[in-house]
């Protein structure tokens, strides 16, 4: 293909909202797209519109190449035969994992200034444990940021409390990155200089430009695969659940069911944190809004 033709195809693909690679691989036909839409909705709660066809086609072509499949019909057969094996890869391909350390800082300010001191004092008196769940943890920035403020609060409290953070996600690639806990230095933009020095180990030599989270943070965080629409192995209760920039992919019935399940995992007075573009308005009577995308379970 000439450079001029390649550039033309790239412009056509961009105009259609698809990656240029989507112009060169197999096409996603009506029957296969209809199956993928049903499968993704039933398994992940993600509603794919017709307008997403080109995006899905372009992103899943990488999975076809990785699995050495000829077309989307063969990929659909894989999903039918081995739904649990491929589900995480599919969800990872069609969703966007955008995250950062200390994203939406007002949530962390609430933890530092009010919630963690109160929780730790109460837990220490009662001999109880403290649990926070990062649901949809992506590549780990959120749970490790939570671990930083938790570790600092534990030091300030001067007491011994059983405190842990559960981090879950459906994407195998995201979970692998979270378990590694190694980030490019330019990914630490939201971390203060003091916290960078305290909670990260800077790489040298071949690892120059990278930083690894401190072992203390790893001690506080447990990372596990979990599909929010399937059964949950943990019993709870959690003192707080962070589910930020996750439900934007879900339709109203799926959101209602998920919020009801979260309510079961929280005690009266427990907290649910959503993303900046998300709301629980008209979706649940179990929670009251007490701050910017901060909800508290009603008594």
From TrEMBL:
Enzyme Commission no: 2.1.1.80
A Pfam match: CheR
InterPro entries the UniProt entry points to: Bact_Chemotaxis_MeTrfase (IPR050903), Chemotaxis_MeTrfase_CheR (IPR026024), CheR_C (IPR022642), CheR_MeTrfase (IPR000780), CheR_N (IPR022641), CheR_N_sf (IPR036804), SAM-dependent_MTases_sf (IPR029063)
Record organism: Dyella ginsengisoli
Coiled-coil ranges per UniProt: none
Protein name according to UniProt: Chemotaxis protein methyltransferase
Segments forming domain CheR-type methyltransferase: 21-299
Catalytic EC class: transferase
SUPFAM superfamilies: Chemotaxis receptor methyltransferase CheR, N-terminal domain, S-adenosyl-L-methionine-dependent methyltransferases
Keywords: Methyltransferase, S-adenosyl-L-methionine, Transferase
Function: Methylation of the membrane-bound methyl-accepting chemotaxis proteins (MCP) to form gamma-glutamyl methyl ester residues in MCP.
Reactions catalysed according to its record: L-glutamyl-[protein] + S-adenosyl-L-methionine = [protein]-L-glutamate 5-O-methyl ester + S-adenosyl-L-homocysteine
Cleaved signal peptide residues: none
């Amino acid at each position: 293909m000439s450079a001029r033709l390649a550039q033309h195809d790239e412009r056509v693909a961009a105009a259609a909202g698809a990656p240029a690679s989507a112009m060169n691989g197999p096409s996603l036909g009506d029957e296969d797209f209809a199956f993928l839409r049903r499968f993704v909705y039933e398994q992940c709660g993600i509603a794919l519109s017709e307008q997403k066809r080109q995006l899905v086609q372009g992103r899943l072509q990488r999975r076809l190449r990785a699995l050495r499949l000829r077309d989307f019909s063969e990929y659909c057969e894989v999903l039918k035969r081995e739904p649990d094996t491929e589900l995480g890869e599919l969800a990872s391909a069609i969703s966007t994992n955008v995250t950062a350390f200390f994203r939406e800082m007002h949530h962390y300010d609430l933890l530092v200034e009010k919630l963690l001191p109160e929780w730790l004092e109460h837990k220490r008196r009662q001999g109880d444990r403290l649990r926070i769940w990062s649901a949809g943890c992506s590549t780990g920035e959120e749970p490790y940021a939570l671990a930083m403020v938790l570790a600092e609060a534990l030091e300030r409290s001067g007491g011994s409390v059983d405190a842990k953070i559960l981090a879950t996600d459906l994407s195998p690639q995201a979970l692998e990155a979270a378990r590694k806990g190694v980030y490019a230095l330019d990914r630490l933009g939201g971390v203060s200089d003091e916290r960078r020095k305290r909670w990260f180990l800077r790489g040298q030599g071949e690892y120059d430009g990278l930083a690894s989270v401190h072992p203390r943070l790893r001690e506080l965080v447990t990372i596990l695969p979990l599909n929010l629409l399937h059964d949950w192995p943990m019993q709870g209760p959690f003192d707080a659940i962070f589910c930020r920039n996750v439900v934007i992919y879900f339709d109203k019935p799926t959101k209602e069911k998920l919020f009801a399940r979260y309510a079961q995992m929280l005690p009266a007075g427990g907290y649910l944190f959503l993303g900046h573009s998300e709301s629980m308005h008209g979706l649940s009577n179990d929670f009251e809004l007490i701050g910017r995308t901060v909800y508290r379970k009603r008594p």
